[in-house]
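Discussion board: Methods & Data

I've been asked by a reviewer to show the raw model output for two of the constructs in my manuscript, not just the figures. I'm not sure how much to include, so I'm pasting the format here to get opinions. Each protein appears as its amino acid sequence followed by a line of discrete structure tokens. Is this the kind of thing reviewers expect to see in a supplement, or should I convert it first? Here is construct A:
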Amino acid sequence: MTGIDAKSQDVHELVEAAATVEQLGTGFTFTEGPIWHPEKQLLYFSDMPADVRRSITLDGDVREVLRPAWKCNGMTFDAQLDLIVCEHASSTLVRERKDGVRETLAYHWQGRYLNSPNDVCVRSDGTIYFTDPWYGRKPHYGVERERELGWQGVFRIPPGGGQAELDLAVAEDEFDMPNGLCFSLDESRLYINDTPRGHIKVFDVLPDGELTNGRLFFEGIISETVGGKPDGMKCDERGNIWVTGPGGVWIISPEAELLGVARVPEVIGNLAWGGPDWKTLFIAASTSIYTLRTLVGPRREPFMAQADHE
């Protein structure tokens, strides 16, 4: 089943009732970290257990970009279109510059190695936020090794760079495994999901970038019978939250109402908008990359203005 399971008629303002998820490419091991390059007009994604980064175009042309790829997970671009990458195997957040220089952004906190940076987003002022569960210290999706921190937090790096700062004072019990994260339209709030707990929390973002006033936004994104949990998450141009979950992509209004589910035939790892008009939703699933045409595009981020084809 690959159609739209509407929970509210409002979902049809975001995606047509007859829209279906289409397979663009397949034969991978587990895909993650999709990000659209607006100049090259292609999608980068991680084939994580295979330890390779690939690209795919809208006509399905798949190319190998990097091998080994440190079992990279979440990826995004900064305003200069330099690629920011979460690496499971090295427990490192890196920036890969267009000139080929590899810059280490974060790999430890107070002398101890990070768990394994998982997903990442960038605020308009250049502040970088990333989640740090320990999935990358497990076999298959990472390299099995002992943890050093003992808790799973969310970190930020100031616009000018420098030491990664722990953003949540009670990291030990705020999250079990923090995973996907995204800003609200005006960047006044940051949404962060927790995979094992099956919920999304939201935090107010202070002017200096610090997070405060964490509270539950949406819960129940979990099923004992249907595969899929909260993982990748994005905000659209109307402020709705699109998050991976049981059965497909869950679409949640800013008022925390479930509007519908875009059904996908495989468990999903992440998602990202792209295409010439930014209205193709790319869905990174277990063995395949899928697409879904939508009536809305993403919340605009600085890197998207580099080549605006609208």
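Construct B, same format:
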Amino acid sequence: MLEFETKFREAMRSRVSLLDKIMHYIVKRKGKQMRPMFVFLTAGVSGKITEATYRGASLIELLHTATLVHDDVVDDSNMRRGFFSINALWKNKIAVLVGDYLLSKGLLLSIDNNDFNLLKIVSEAVREMSEGELLQIEKARKLDIDEAVYFDIISRKTAALIASCCSVGAASADAGTDMIEHMKETGKVIGIAFQVKDDLFDYELSNKTGKPTGIDIKESKMTLPLIYSLSVSDASEKRHIINIIKNHNTDDKKVKEVLDFVDSKKGIAYAKEKMFVLRDEAIARIQTYPDNEYRRSLTALVNFTIEREN
């Protein structure tokens, strides 16, 4: 990872001083870097880590960072990982151009090194992520998301990127087509579990405040705990809760009513159960490979995705 960070910083470098300053800011506030870890560990499980693995991990991070920068513009968000977002500091026009720059750096990194197979994997993931985001926006207007639609959305939005990390790792290690596809499907299962965990944060107690955040409710987002709770409710309860989400989602007391409703309907327990089933499926898939330090670390990383506290 230390070597990767050096190569990644080099991949982001620009001769335009404003861009270089922004790239430095992005690198400085990096997150957990779980996605490059998935690339390296799956490469280790599939064969061996090569120079293509480093480029694949950089490609994933460049395109992922570009989507985050653009997301903050779309969502009009001023914060990202506890820091000011690019659009908050440099305004929307510069943030959009920075996202475009990152996308172009990822494309050129692959093209210049003839990593067309890696570029194809990641480009397909970006397409799926865009489709998932648009599907969620379309469905959110009517609040008619059921469990099948929810899993379809997160399979595209979150799971597609982690699936691409795992397939890029395998492809960079010169694994066969079957193994690359198996790793992709494994990554998809991990990604779905990862997103269910993210959605649970909204309903579980925050370490800082001791209260659930309720942010998804305030943004009218239908996630698994709420979807399940509505599915086991009678028509009048359902109408009442939907009305709050549509028309009173800025009222803290009303949001608390929805949180209590989900708790009473065992929506949190249901989502956790689904998450653990997905975790077990992902680990079972990983266990089909020979035992080594990479397989053990990949298993530990899967466990971390559902045990993390932020």
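Answer (T.O., handling editor elsewhere):
This is acceptable in a supplement if you add a one-line summary per construct. For B, something like: The first strand starts at residue 79 and ends at 80.
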